[in-house]
Design a protein that fits this description.
Layout (H helix, E strand, L loop, with lengths): L2 H31 L7 H27 L5 H20 L4 H4 L6 H4 L3 H19 L8 H102 L4 H26 L12 H16 L2 E7 L7 H22 L3 E8 L3 E8 L19 H11 L3 E6 L5 E8 L5
Parallel strand pairs: 1-2
Antiparallel strand pairs: 2-3, 3-5, 4-5
Helix pairs in contact: 1-2, 2-3, 3-6, 6-7, 7-8, 9-10, 10-11
Length: 417
């Protein structure tokens, strides 16, 4: 219930509880001012006694209503007694109809039965109509006609006012229920907002943790693909230098080691800044793969060939970097583990996807018994597969002991820009 409804209800309660006192007091003052309407001493004494009884009845009900609020038998008794006193006073002096009119306002508050709620105001209308027709008892036939008309008019007015009042009360109850529902909805909404805020904060924490973990994995993979492979190549060149038969041969391998060190330093800097690999800095993926395969073949002494099929396109940087890293890891595995004498790398553009195939004639392995990655090993197949899946691709491996290895990375063709 709103503050306005509460204030209106409080005023109605004040009218119902204090109104009869005021109306009886006003009627008494008017009766005193029009004493000639009650000429006999006995009648005047009767008026005085009835007025005192009326105030006494009001005092009794004031105490009783505190313990019996709402419609009740006691309320019906009070309403009937008040009407009887009012009717008797109106018979003695018409101005006491003001007191009788109090029954218009509190019938529903006092009487539990619906029929009595209608009969009570109608009975009050009879007393009020009698006073309006000139006062009871009537001394001329015309007064009866006027009285009948006034009863009809007063009854119609009571019916209309009662109907409008009921509609207003119904609207007030509906409005109060709507407001209560809105308050409940607002409370539920606020709770949902609080829960959503807590969930949002939790998601931010989880996203931050996931971002940190992903960045760690990225750096680990980049270090493996750049620094680890570069250091491996440097070690291999330095081992050759240690066993070199003459100074020119040693110098050649020292130059290669220095070149690998510079290359690895550049890759490390780009990995930290999450930039594209060095080989892709100025060239597209086909040229970068061609250069990578050629450098690897020169460094390892293994025969390697690179082929492009389909119409080459400028790929998105992430796609190009992923395929280049997969090729670098596969070539590193071929030189360290496969003992291959020949390697073939093919890059195929097939409309909506790109396929990178790497084949070697090395010793191969059984994919079902391939050991898990250890702390001493590289990222290997698991790292290459994770790279492909990160851009919605896949990696398949076919190998057999003594029959070489075929690796195929299939990723969506996403064009640059």
């Amino acid at each position: 219930m709103t503050a306005v409804d509460t204030d209106i209800e409080r005023r109605w309660q004040l009218i119902r509880s204090k109104g009869p006192y005021g109306l009886l007091a006003v009627a008494t003052l008017l009766a005193v001012a029009t004493a000639e309407l009650t000429p006999g001493t006995a009648e005047r004494n009767a008026v005085a006694a009835l007025v005192v009884a009326g105030f006494g009845l009001q005092l009794w009900w004031g105490r009783t209503s505190r313990t019996r609020p709402g419609p009740s038998t006691a309320g019906t008794v009070y309403y009937g007694g008040r009407w009887a006193l009012g009717f008797a006073l109106t018979w003695l002096n018409p101005f006491f109809a003001f007191y009788v009119a109090a029954g218009y306002f509190d019938a529903e508050e006092l009487m539990p039965r619906r029929s009595l709620r209608w009969i009570g105001p109608f009975a009050c209308a009879i007393a009020v109509s009698g006073a309006q027709a000139g006062g009871l008892p009537f001394h001329a036939p015309v007064q009866w006609a006027v009285f009948a008309g006034l009863v009809v008019v007063n009854s119609v007015m009571l019916t209309v006012v009662g109907h409008l009042t009921s509609q207003q009360e119904e609207r007030s109850r509906a409005r109060a229920e709507t407001i209560a529902e809105l308050e409940s909805t607002n409370t539920a909404l606020q709770q949902a907002l609080d829960e959503n805020a807590a969930l949002h904060a939790q998601l931010l924490v989880q996203a931050r943790e996931a971002g940190v973990a992903d960045e760690r994995r990225r750096l680990a993979a980049e270090i493996h693909d750049t620094l680890a492979q570069g250091l491996t190549g440097i070690i291999a060149q330095l081992q050759v230098v240690a066993n070199a038969p003459d100074l020119p041969t040693a110098r050649i391998h020292l130059d290669r080691a220095a070149s690998l060190a510079r290359h690895s330093l550049g890759e490390a800097r780009r990995s930290v800044h999450n930039l594209a690999p060095v080989a892709l800095e100025h060239d597209g993926l086909p040229q970068a793969l061609k250069s990578t395969v050629a450098e690897w073949a020169e460094r390892t002494g293994v025969r390697a060939e690179f082929t492009v099929t389909g119409t080459a396109e400028h790929l998105h940087d992430e796609v190009s970097a992923t395929l280049l890293r997969i090729a670098q890891e596969a070539l590193s595995n071929a030189s360290r583990h496969a003992r291959a004498t020949r390697v073939g790398v093919t890059l195929s553009f097939l409309g909506d996807e790109v396929i990178l195939d790497i084949r070697d004639d090395g010793r191969g392995f059984d994919p079902l018994t391939f050991p898990e990655r250890t702390h001493s090993g590289g990222f290997g197949l698991a790292g290459m597969r994770a790279r492909a899946e990160r851009i919605a691709g896949c990696l398949t491996v076919e190998s057999e002991p003594g029959r070489g290895t075929a690796l195929s990375a299939r990723v969506p063709l996403v064009r640059h820009g």
